[in-house]
Structures are given as structure tokens and as C-alpha cells.
Amino acid sequence: MKKLSVLELGYRLPGDSPAKVVREIAASAQVLERLGYHRLWFAEHHADQHVYASPEPLVAHAAAVTSRLRVGPAGILMNVHVPVRVAEVFRTLEALHPERIDLGVAGGRLLGEHEKAYGVEPEEVLRSGLYGRRVEQLVAHLRGEPARGPLGGPDVAPRDVDGPIVICLGAGQGRGNMAIAAKLGLPFCYSLFHSGPDHAREVISEYRETFQPSRWLPRPYALLAVNMLCGATNNDAAAMLNRARLHSAGFRPAILGRPALCREQIERLLAQKGADEVVIASSYQEVSERLEAYHLLAEACGLGS
Predict the structure, then answer these.
(1) Which run of H or E residues covers position 283?
(2) In a domain, 240, yes or no
(3) Are 44 and 55 in contact (CB under 8 A)?
């Protein structure tokens, strides 16, 4: 089995205490490291159904209580945050935890009151090329390259840190994030959360064909982010799916079933889509249920052995 990683989406189920769930999520990092997972990512979402909005404190905590696990956000919304500030935060984390910090970036936007509170201008977000320019500026800051253009600024501290590595997140038929990753020599993660698998192989193949090596990454590296429901039996997984659809009627996990079946589906996805690694999320479950699913899958995949 190739490397297997986890994405925490921070969903809140009815009746949950958001603060309690955040503490449970933070405690999961040590469990996942013991199970043999490679990365733990925390999403950035600004909506009532999520228990946190800022992934940076969770990244810092998870890195502090583990020793091997790679941790990071997936992803920082670059249409919302200015590149120099993102670079300052994550260069500091990289200095504290060398070669263990991932910096996932995404092109999402805020809505309604959140947009106003952050002072984001909708017209600026919709302007063609803003996200790409901000990612390029962020990478320049992190690589210690000269900051140019209207999004430029001073060199960021600590100045003797190279990184962390930026990972571009993308989905659907759009080529924007993939093209940026290929041009800048960055890993690319294709998400199946908001789109089916139909275009994944095509997009990943184009990423590999157009990839330009960088000092961070000599060869292309593609990840797949997928939803998973893993139960002790297929019937248990089916029951999980029925409960999940009470919260999201159209929920369709790419990985579903008993542990051995989930492993087969992951291996098939890796082969069919040409990816190097799968990042899994178990949505619409209690944290304890998610950890049990990750335990079952780790055993089936021989992680940590």
C-alpha cells in the first residue's frame, strides 16, 4: 500500500459541542501517528456546520504532540488571506517542525457575513487570475525569492527556513490549480468531494505531462482526496451511509465497505487515476467513529508494519 493520509473536515453533528469536538479532533493526531498514517490535514471552512474555521492552531498543536506525522491545512483560502501573512505563519511552523509541515492552498471564497467581516471584496475575488498570483507570491516568499508586483512585500522571517512545501488543491474539470502546481513544481491534490472521479485521471495526467521540476519537488506528485465510510462489515458501512444521508442526502463516498473492500477500492483508485497517495475523510460521523474506521483501515492496509 502506498502512503495513506487523513483529512479532517470538522463537521458538527446535531447536539455536538463544537469546543468538545475540536478537542477530540486535536487528540486524534497522536492516534493517527500510532496507526501509521502519513499526513493529517485540517480543512478551512467558514460555515455553521463546521466546528472550527481556522486550521492553523490545530496544525500547530498536532505537530507539537507528534514526531513523524506530516500536518497542515487543506487548504488555506488564498482568495481570503494575504500571501505574506500566510508565509510568516507557516515559515514559523516549519522552523519549529522541520520537514513535517504541508501548506495546502485552495481557491475557495467566503459568503455573506463572513465575506464582509474579512473585508473581502467579491469583485476582487472573482477577478481572473487573483488566486494564481497570490499562490505565486506565497511560493516566492517561502522560497526566499524576490517579492515582486502589487502582492509583493518584505522577506519573511525566519529567513533561514526553506519551505514549507505548498500543495495545490483542485477538483472537477477546472485546470487552474493543476496548472499552477505544474508550473511551480508543486504537489497537486485532486479532490473527489465536490465532483465524481470521471475527470481525475485526465487532470492528473496533464499535471504530470506539464510538470516543471523545482528544488522542492524533482518529480510530479499527485494525491487524491476522497470520502470514506469503513465499517467492520459491509452492513455496518451501509448503516453508516444511511445515517450520513440524514445530514446530506446526496452524500456518495468514493470508498465504502468493510476494511478489506476499502483497501481494494483505494488500490483501484490509485491505479486508475494515476495518483501517488490517497487522503481520506470520514464525514458525518462522531470523532470516535472516524478513529475506529481509520483503525480498521490501517490494519487492513498494513500501515505501520
Answers:
(1) none
(2) yes
(3) yes
